[in-house]
Structure formats: structure tokens, C-alpha cells
UniProtKB/TrEMBL annotation:
Pfam family, one: ChapFlgA
Organism annotation: Brevundimonas mediterranea
Lineage: Bacteria, Pseudomonadati, Pseudomonadota, Alphaproteobacteria, Caulobacterales
Coiled-coil residue spans: none
Domain Flagella basal body P-ring formation protein FlgA SAF: 104-183
The protein's name in its UniProt record: Flagella basal body P-ring formation protein FlgA SAF domain-containing protein
Length: 203
């Protein structure tokens, strides 16, 4: 009986090692979507293969956000290897049917922000336009959706300087760039403000 037990334990250990050794590399899809509320590894990754039908989350609204570390662990358990090369904190999966909603666009933007961000210095001559706890209007464009929300500045910011803005409705922090008094932008427009803040100051 003891010999049989040892054999079973050894077989299980070998199977675990074999599974880890043969973990297949996968890449995150550029726009993960699902169509039935059951979010699977195949909805999120290219090259999921036999693990494509493994369910990792349930979506009850227009989108669901999954912690990147949790997703990485679930993928590994299913025999997939996702290295998270962009250092994502969260991954958002949207409903595949119908137009992209403003709420989904906002969630996607916040979820895909990398954990380690470069530090930018203001090029606007140190002209402070936002003070900590100011109410700030953040505007950005994602997937053809123009979105504008009000939030509370988490720090002082000069023109062209990054500023974290707390969306008081969702309690999420948005990374933006100060573009004027009480104004900030996120997305592609943020790069333009950083590159030429004086252009926005003249408005």
C-alpha cells in the first residue's frame, strides 16, 4: 500500500513539473472582448489553444476588470505562460456586441495604464494651473468615444505636468496631464500637451 501511495505521489509530481515545463507562451489580445458574459482565456489571449475555454471571470456589465497578477496565475494553472511584458496592473474585457460605451472606454483606459510610468518634468515654465484637491475636468478620447469627467486633483500640477485625478464617482485614479486651469487631458492628447504646453497655455 505504501509503495502504491509513493507511486501516485511521484506521478502527480511529475505531471505538475511536466505541465509547468510545457507551458505555452501566449500574448494578450489588443482588444479583449467576450459575447456571453463568460470571460475565457481564449477571449483574452492569442494562442490559448486547448485552454481557450477555461473561464477566468464573469462579466455582468459592459466590461469586467481583472487584476493582472490574478490573470497571470490563472493562465499558468491552465498551462499558459503570459509574461505581461508591458507591466499591466489590470486587464479590461468588454462586451463584444454594440457600440463602445463611455463607461467601458474609461475602464479600459484606467485598466491598461502600466504600473511603472516615466517621470515627466513640466515644460511650461513651472506655471501651476492645478492645486491639490481642486475639481478638475479630465477629457480623453478612446476608440472614437469622447469622454469628459470631473474629478479631484491628488497633487499640485504645472502646465504640462502629470497629475493624478480621483474620479469621485468610481473611486478610481486617472493618470492625466495638466492642460490649463482646472483642466487635464489623458490618452494621446496628453503627449501633445507634454510636448508643447505653451500651445495650450495660450488658449
Amino acid at each position: 500500500m505504501t509503495r502504491i501511495r509513493r507511486t501516485l505521489v511521484l506521478a502527480a509530481a511529475l505531471a505538475a513539473v511536466s505541465s509547468a515545463a510545457w507551458a505555452g507562451p501566449v500574448s494578450l489580445k489588443s482588444n479583449p472582448v467576450d459575447d456571453d458574459g463568460r470571460v475565457t482565456l481564449g477571449d483574452i489571449f492569442d494562442g490559448a489553444g486547448a485552454a481557450a475555454e477555461v473561464v477566468v471571470a464573469q462579466r455582468v456589465g459592459p466590461s469586467v476588470v481583472i487584476e493582472a497578477g490574478q490573470l497571470q496565475a490563472q493562465a499558468r494553472q491552465a498551462g499558459l505562460d503570459w509574461t505581461n511584458p508591458n507591466g499591466l496592473r489590470r486587464v479590461a474585457v468588454r462586451r463584444s456586441t454594440g457600440p463602445v460605451s463611455a463607461a467601458a472606454a474609461q475602464t479600459d483606459l484606467q485598466a491598461s495604464a502600466p504600473q511603472n510610468r516615466p517621470v515627466y518634468r513640466p515644460a511650461g515654465g513651472g506655471q501651476q494651473v492645478i492645486a491639490r484637491n481642486d475639481m478638475v475636468r479630465v477629457t480623453y478620447q478612446v476608440g472614437g468615444v469622447n469622454l469628459s469627467i470631473m474629478g479631484k486633483a491628488m497633487r499640485n500640477a504645472a502646465l504640462g505636468e502629470p497629475v493624478a485625478v480621483l474620479n469621485t464617482a468610481s473611486n478610481r485614479v486617472i493618470d492625466a496631464v495638466a492642460s490649463g486651469p482646472g483642466q487635464a487631458v489623458a490618452g494621446p492628447a496628453a503627449d501633445r500637451v507634454r510636448a508643447n504646453p505653451q500651445q495650450f497655455a495660450a488658449r
